[in-house]
Amino acid sequence: MRTTVGIVGAGPAGLLLARLLHNAGVDSVVLESRDRAYVEQRQRAGILEQGTVDVLRAAGVGERMDREGLRHDGIELRFEKKRHRVDFPGLAGGRAVMVYAQTEVCKDLIARQLADGGPLLFEAEALAVEGVDGDSPRVRFRHEGREDVLECEYVVGCDGFWGVSRQAIPAELVRVFERTYPFGWLGVLADVPPSHDELVYARHDRGFALLSMRSPAVSRLYLQVPAGTDAESWGDEAIWDELERRFETDDDWKLERGPITQKSVTPMRSYVHEPMRHGRLFLAGDAAHIVPPTGAKGLNLAVGDVVTFARALTHQKETGSSELLDAYSATCLRRVWQAERFSYDMTTLLHPDPDATPFEDRLQLARLERIASSRAAETDLAEGYTGFPFG
Ligand SMILES: Cc1cc2nc3c(=O)[nH]c(=O)nc-3n(C[C@H](O)[C@H](O)[C@H](O)COP(=O)(O)OP(=O)(O)OC[C@H]3O[C@@H](n4cnc5c(N)ncnc54)[C@H](O)[C@@H]3O)c2cc1C
């Protein structure tokens, strides 16, 4: 098999890249190790920045998002039983975010890609990326029980944190920046209308809680739990009781309960792999960086990376100049580090650290008070949440 761009992984990064390249008249092949149902049902992100919404619309996959997605103009911060709303358009130059699940973004992209003839191969596991220092890199992969080779001009590793692509970059050229957190998120899906029409980020002495949603009928809720917690060790009633405690207010706000249909624990990690490019291999999305989910940045960063790559390749095809491809890693990393900073700030703002001193606990509350009382501090949060410009 031969193509211009070999794409490893059909998460949001790989699928969107295939679409952007198709629209630019560049051929690609996507290899995905899992089956279609798995990719379409994996519960993950749900918040799309303004820039991501604009990219999906321009790529021709925004129609269902515009019909079924929920535009959100703000979030609520909750601490010490008090409520503070952050108004995005008023603080961040008219920008807002869209609640539309990653599962739905992937379904829309897969449907369009297959309708246009693909090629998008499920259950095709990349085994290794080779020859990236030369002019004809290739991906060795296994599909339908046999090994095959995809010859390319460029390979883009969109294979997530556990993928194989980044192993093709020599270890002596790599720097990894990493932080793990002593807590994770117990996330549940519940068949109950959300108890608030915007996301609620609650800081409580017992831990952080987040109220989010997937649709007007389905709530998505999270609890901070110690790292390594087994989701099954939490019974449904215990989850609702704990959510109720952490969301408690001094007014008559009430948390509605309903049947829990899914629960899982997500570890929290900050991770950046530098560089994001070596020779003809480019890394995009979770293959190169991870943020803790508090800032809702992971999917949006993946979108920023592939937009940057597609623009750079188009520039190269149109002008013959590889200037933008050469700048790919530096261009993406500027945005990545802003998102890392924002996600770290949101995480340490809202999660009581089990090892924190009483002094640090008070500082955390002082930071929240500052956001609630200073337009400058609140503007910083609103700008970060609604997103940094794509490079
Ligand atoms: C619980 C949770 C909540 C989150 N909430 C948010 C949020 O609100 N907002 C937000 O922006 N982000 C959020 N994120 C992060 C977001 O989901 C990820 O950043 C996003 O999925 C990254 O997309 P990706 O395409 O880079 O990687 P992935 O989605 O991980 O896709 C990688 C793909 O590559 C495939 N693959 C792996 N290895 C191989 C191989 N060897 N060969 C072929 N294919 C391979 C995988 O099967 C997968 O389909 C959340 C994540 C989690 C876990």
Q: Please mark out the parts with pLDDT under 50 across 5 or more consecutive residues, or reply none.
A: none
| Overall pLDDT | 96
User: Helical percent range?
Assistant: 25-40%
Q: Major β-sheet, in short?
A: 8 strands, mixed
Distance between the termini: 32 Å
Hetero ligands: flavin-adenine dinucleotide
Derived from helix and strand composition plus strand pairing, the structural class reads alpha+beta
How would you explain this protein's 3D organization?
By secondary structure, the chain is an alpha+beta fold. The chain is 36% helix and 30% strand. Strands 6-5-14-15-16-13-17-20 form an eight-stranded mixed beta sheet. It has a six-stranded mixed beta sheet with strand order 8-2-1-12-19-18. Strand 15 and strand 16 (218-226) form a beta hairpin. The longest helix is centred in the C-terminal third of the chain and has 23 residues, at 328-350. It is globular, with a radius of gyration of 21 Å. Bound molecules: flavin-adenine dinucleotide.
Q: Which features does this protein show?
A:
eight-stranded mixed sheet, binds flavin-adenine dinucleotide, single chain, 391 residues, alpha+beta
What would you say about this model in short?
The protein has helices at 12-23, 36-41, 50-58, 63-68, 88-91, 102-115, 236-246, 298-319, 323-326, 328-350, 358-373, 375-386, and strands at 5-8, 28-31, 47-49, 70-72, 74-79, 82-87, 97-99, 120-121, 124-130, 138-143, 146-151, 154-157, 175-190, 199-204, 207-215, 218-226, 260-274, 277-278, 281-283, 289-290.
